[in-house]
Amino acid sequence: MFALGRAQELCILLETFWERLNLKVPIYFTQGLAEKANHYYKLFISWTNQKIKKTFVQRNMFEFKHIKPFDRSYIGNPGAMVVFATPGMLHAGQALQIFKHWAPNEKNMVIMPGYCVKGTVGHKILNGIRKVDIDGVSVEVKMAVEYMSFSAHADAKGMYLW
Hints:
Elements (H helix, E strand, L loop, with lengths): L1 H20 L5 E4 L2 H11 L6 H7 L10 E4 L11 E3 L8 H10 L6 E4 L8 H6 L4 E4 L2 E4 L3 E4 L15
Parallel strand pairs: 1-2, 1-3, 4-7
Antiparallel strand pairs: 5-6
C-alpha cells in the first residue's frame, strides 16, 4: 500500500502541474492495482488528511482530468505521452512490454523511480547497458535513461494518506 500511496501522491502532483500549465500531453497509468487503488481513494477520501478533505469541497483530488488508464493499443501509437507502469524494475508486466517497444527510439525516455535489483532490465539500463535481452529478443536501448530517487518506504508518519 505504501508504493501505491506514493504513486497517488505523484499523480496528484502531476495533475496539479498539468492543470496550472495547461499541458496537453496525456498521462496514463497502467491498469491493475493502481487503478483499483485510485478507485478506493475516491471512495474513502474521508480517510485522508485535512488538506485533501478541504480540497474535496471544491473537487475530489482523485478524479483526475489529465490521468487516464493506459490501453495496450497505445504502445504502437506515435506521439507524446507520460505512462506510469509497473513493475518499476522492468522485470515483467506492462512496464517491460512498453519498454521493449519504446527503447529503440531516441525520442523516448524512461525514468527509473528507485532501486533496481541486480539482473533486472532496470538495473542493467541504469548501469549503462544499451543492449538487453527481453523475451529472447535483443533490444537496443536508444531512449534516454534517467534515475529519480522515489522511495516507496515510509516511516510511521508516512503511513497516513498524506
